[in-house]
Model the fold of this input.
Amino acid sequence: MKVIFKDGNTYIEDVENFDVAATLDCGQAFRWEADGNLWHGVAFDRRLKLEKIDNTVILYDTSEQDYNEIWHNYFDLDRNYGEIIDRLKTDERFVEPCNYGGGIRLLNQSPWETLCSFIISQNNNIPRIKGIIDRLCRNFGEKQGDFYTFPTPYALAEKSVEDLAVLRSGFRAKYILDAAKKVSSGEVDLEAIKKLSCDEAREVLMKICGVGPKVADCTLLFGLGFTEAFPKDVWIKRVMEHNFGGNLPECAVPYAGIAQQYLFFYARSHGDEF
DNA sequence: TCCCAGGCTCTCT
DNA sequence: AGAGAGCATGGG
Done:
């Protein structure tokens, strides 16, 4: 991999295991849209347009500083996915999922946005999750040029369930507010729990009303860097039943969250029995 | 129309 | 501890 800054763009050349479309559309983040081969979205209060041409990922209008401070880590470019995939493939059942989804990279997202987004995700479908998050940003985020930032927990903590009716998020509104209150008050310190063990951090997150094991594990995995977190949604539960007898094989345990992404992506398009 | 969605809380055993 | 109802809303 080689990173070049030229004409105001960032070019990531010879990049391995980076399928831009799969990474942005596999259900780990909800603020990315495709316009043909070009993807655009917002993360960490910055707008980004990107696409992959041949084996180069181009981040448009991105300074060296933004790349170094935001996008390099956001796209998890320090991780060697090839090694992880090789290890997973020592178990036959991971071969097809890895071949199919091996271009998915974990997005290291903002902890608060991740927590809030996956609270909204519960018992919901991806198109509607995106719609609710879009309305959340438009109504309570900050307008910056042609986009809206993700609202802070402080901005949301002072709102009421009635205020949030514009989101049409149903029973989840009260959960969003409880999360906003606990995070903004420091009762749940999203930075501090990065230093805890995965189990301890999960326990803290679950103090929020509306955060159970699944939402907590998504937050741990996509927002707090715990690759051993293993979110179990309806798809993964079926995959685990049908193919793994309920337990992950040893080779997947340290990277359970990454393995989970491959299994989720594969199962959604191929069905859960393989 | 019906079923379901990247679940969780509450209640009842 | 485990099972089941109810939850808001709208996409397919």
Notes: The radius of gyration of chain A is 19 Å. Residues 123-125, 127-128, 131-132, 168-173 of chain A lie near DNA strand C (CB under 10 Å from a C1'). The first strand of chain A starts at residue 2 and ends at 6.
